[in-house]
Write a structure and sequence with these properties.
Blueprint: E1 15-20, E2 26-32, E3 45-54, E4 61-67, E5 71-73, E6 88-93, E7 97-106, E8 111-116, E9 122-127, E10 131-133, E11 136-138, E12 141-143, H1 158-179, E13 185-189, E14 199-208, E15 212-221, E16 228-234, E17 238-240, E18 256-261, E19 264-273, E20 278-283, E21 289-293, E22 297-299, E23 301-304, E24 307-310, H2 312-317, H3 327-337, E25 350-355, E26 363-373, E27 377-386, E28 393-399, E29 403-405, E30 421-426, E31 429-439, E32 443-448, E33 453-458, E34 462-464, E35 466-469, E36 472-475, E37 509-514, E38 522-533, E39 536-545, E40 552-558, E41 562-564, E42 580-585, E43 588-598, E44 602-607, E45 612-617, E46 621-623, E47 625-628, E48 631-634
Antiparallel strand pairs: 1-2, 1-5, 2-3, 3-4, 6-7, 6-10, 7-8, 8-9, 11-12, 13-14, 13-17, 14-15, 15-16, 18-19, 18-22, 19-20, 20-21, 23-24, 25-26, 25-29, 26-27, 27-28, 30-31, 30-34, 31-32, 32-33, 35-36, 37-38, 37-41, 38-39, 38-43, 39-40, 42-43, 42-46, 43-44, 44-45, 47-48
Organism: Solanum stoloniferum
Protein name: Agenet domain-containing protein
InterPro entries: Agenet-like_dom, Agenet_dom_plant
């Protein structure tokens, strides 16, 4: 039987457990609603609200006065505790409270058979999260003592001990409210069956009492899937979202990681490194071994004394200062490099290398500088690309103009927005594209203008797109065009135009021309929704959005302004002066002419309709093609 000791002072909001003995001995979790009263009132009873015990006449939690001698503090959780046969334990029984028992057998997947104390023999099957060491509360201490419990000094009066404890609670309460403010994005550790020990992103809704907060999960939904789940959680189960540590260096054996599974982050460690940037991870709470891709893992971090600390094992294997490019280091490099776009690359430095090969134009691949080759070239070793026989990492000579430092990590807790420019991790590299649709489940449809493709990506395989310009990182926010394409029904057919009898099927990829002032000669990618008759079509743009910026723009357009999407031609060789090109700008293709070839496969392009000259990368240009009499004809040099 648990010991009945001298009643202890409790304060409003304290987490406690209340003893019940009918029909068996069980400790029910509760919260103190009123401080310990004077013995003259209600005979030393305490007013509590049970957390798992509900009123029969209503769905609310049960509240009642209980004897102070039947109340003890809630023991602090001891995470990741393992048990052996014969251990005295307490079982979280029927999701009501804690019953004493003894481990009878150990099963697979962190499951146990426990023989419960009681008149009738009862054996229950319990997951690890539903067990804790059996302890009794004896005169202000836990027996057996907690590993971190500090025994009270005998020469300090008991009253002083209690007073000091009250002061400590007050300080913690203030700290929690200052740490977690309304609307703040956080991670919440869940202790529910099936997800014990996993961390889930949420937002603080409001403070609830002394040490609790109401949170709304950003991914988890209610049973009927109608809205995001809200629940009250203790402050001890909440932490700020950890800073992102993004490294393309492979994880190594025994690295401690968090794995993205079932809409949350699960603690584990690498047990085996597989090929193709995949790993076998042992989850700490379930001891399951599952396969994860690199993009679904993050280095383990600990929130200790309001500071983030990288896990010790990860620190040992990633001690090089060049492994991860921190934003602080980036600022130093920018300051030192001034206005030059050619930073000094040293041996062992992590970089990204651009490819302009056919099929890979505009993509960036993580690499490490192996050595310098002359003044303008470096030997690089790719971190994700291998030789043809897959025997070793690919090494290649790269011009300095194709190399840039690794961009700083920008943590995106919130969702990406419509038409935001992003880099997508695909085929072992980063590819620039546009968010063209926001899907459920933290997924997005991304449009790639270099290949005229749309692909689906998870949130954690995207990053905000940044440009390395004049020795500085510039966030490439999408310059959203407010263009509203207005079909001009009185337009007469002209030579070189689009034939009015051209037929387009539903779902066909097309391009739509604008003749509005300031937009002449620009073509915007779209998809045919359905024909409307009389040479008109309802279509949806892939890079233009509605005025409220919530969806892609759908519009009725005359066939005179529509042409099929041209075949994708990725020119491996450099463009030359006077070459006719289309340049990707403001979500569309603009007809222009190459003026000058710059260093690093960059170009200046002249736009006659706007009388402007702008600079473009090779991957943002395509050879100019005209749709004439149902055929694509390459534009002749010098003819715009």
């Amino acid at each position: 039987m648990p010991l009945h000791t001298t009643p202890q002072c409790f304060n409003k909001g304290d987490a406690v457990e209340v003893l019940k003995t009918n029909p068996f001995t069980i400790w029910l979790p509760a919260t103190v609603l009123r401080s310990t009263p004077c013995k003259k009132t209600r005979n030393g009873q305490i007013y509590v609200e049970f957390q798992t015990h509900y009123c029969e006449e209503s769905s609310g939690s049960r509240r009642e006065y209980v004897n102070a001698g039947d109340v003890r503090p809630a023991p602090p959780p001891e995470l990741h505790r393992y048990f052996k046969v014969g251990d005295n334990v307490e079982v979280f029984y029927n999701e009501k409270g804690w019953r004493k028992g003894k481990v009878d057998d150990i099963l697979e997947n962190s499951m146990y058979f426990v023989l419960l104390d009681g008149v009738e023999e009862e054996i229950v099957k319990v997951e690890q999260w539903g067990l804790r060491v059996y302890r009794v509360w004896d005169d202000g201490s836990w027996l057996p003592p907690l590993e971190f419990q500090q025994m009270p000094q005998k020469n300090i009066p008991e009253v002083e001990q209690k007073s000091r404890g009250v002061k400590l609670r007050i300080m913690c309460s203030r700290s929690w409210k200052e740490t977690f403010s309304e609307g703040m994005s956080v991670e919440v550790k869940r202790d529910k069956e099936g997800c014990y020990g996993s961390w889930h992103t949420a937002a603080i809704v409001e403070s609830v009492g002394y040490d609790k907060f109401l949170v709304e999960y950003q991914k988890l939904k209610t049973v009927n899937r109608s809205q995001f789940l809200k629940e009250e959680v203790y402050a001890s189960c909440i932490r700020p979202c950890p800073p992102e540590i993004q490294s393309f260096h492979q994880f190594e054996h025994l690295d401690r990681v968090d794995a993205w599974l079932n809409d949350g982050w699960w603690e584990g460690h690498i047990t085996e490194v597989l090929g193709g940037l995949k790993y076998i991870v042992c989850l700490m709470t379930t001891e399951e071994e599952l396969v994860f891709e690199h993009s679904m893992l993050r280095p383990r971090q600990e929130w200790v004394k309001e500071k983030w600390f990288t896990a010790r094992e990860f620190d040992k294997t990633r001690s090089s200062s060049d492994m991860t490019l921190k934003s602080k280091e980036l600022k130093i490099r920018i300051k030192c490099s001034g206005r030059t776009s050619k930073p000094k690359f040293s041996k062992g430095m992590r970089v990204e290398v651009r490819s302009d090969e056919e099929g890979y134009q505009g993509s960036w691949f993580p690499a490490v500088i192996v050595n310098s080759i002359g003044e303008h070239n470096f030997l690089v070793e790719y971190l994700t690309l291998r030789t043809e026989d897959e025997s070793e990492p690919l090494e290649e000579k790269a011009d300095v103009s194709y190399i840039r430092p690794c961009p700083p990590v920008i943590q995106r807790i919130d969702r990406f927005k419509m038409l935001e420019e992003v880099d997508a991790w695909y085929n072992e590299g980063w590819w620039v594209g546009l968010i063209c649709k926001i899907l459920d489940g933290l997924k997005y449809m991304v449009y790639f203008w270099t290949t005229n493709e749309e692909l689906v990506f998870d949130h954690f395989t995207l990053r905000p797109h940044l440009e390395w310009i004049d020795g500085k990182w510039v966030i490439a926010f999408m310059k959203k065009s407010k263009l509203q394409v207005k079909p001009k029904l009185n337009l007469k057919r002209q030579n070189g135009g689009v034939a009015s009898h051209t037929n387009f099927c539903v779902g066909a990829k097309v391009e739509v021309r604008s003749d509005e002032e300031g937009y002449q000669g620009s073509w915007y990618p779209a998809t045919i929704v359905r024909p409307l008759g009389n040479g008109k079509y309802l279509l949806q743009y892939q890079t233009l959005e509605t005025d409220d910026e919530t969806d892609l723009l759908t519009e009725e357009v005359d066939a005179l302004f529509i042409r099929p999407s041209p075949p994708v031609i990725q020119q491996a060789d450099q463009f030359r002066p006077l070459d006719e090109v289309d340049a990707w700008h403001n979500g569309g293709w603009w007809a222009g002419q190459v003026c000058k070839v710059l260093i690093g496969s960059n170009y200046t392009v002249y736009f006659r309709t706007a009388n402007e000259i702008l600079e473009f990368q090779h991957s943002d240009l395509r050879p100019r093609q005209n749709w004439l009499d149902g055929e694509w004809i390459a534009a002749k040099k010098g003819m715009m």
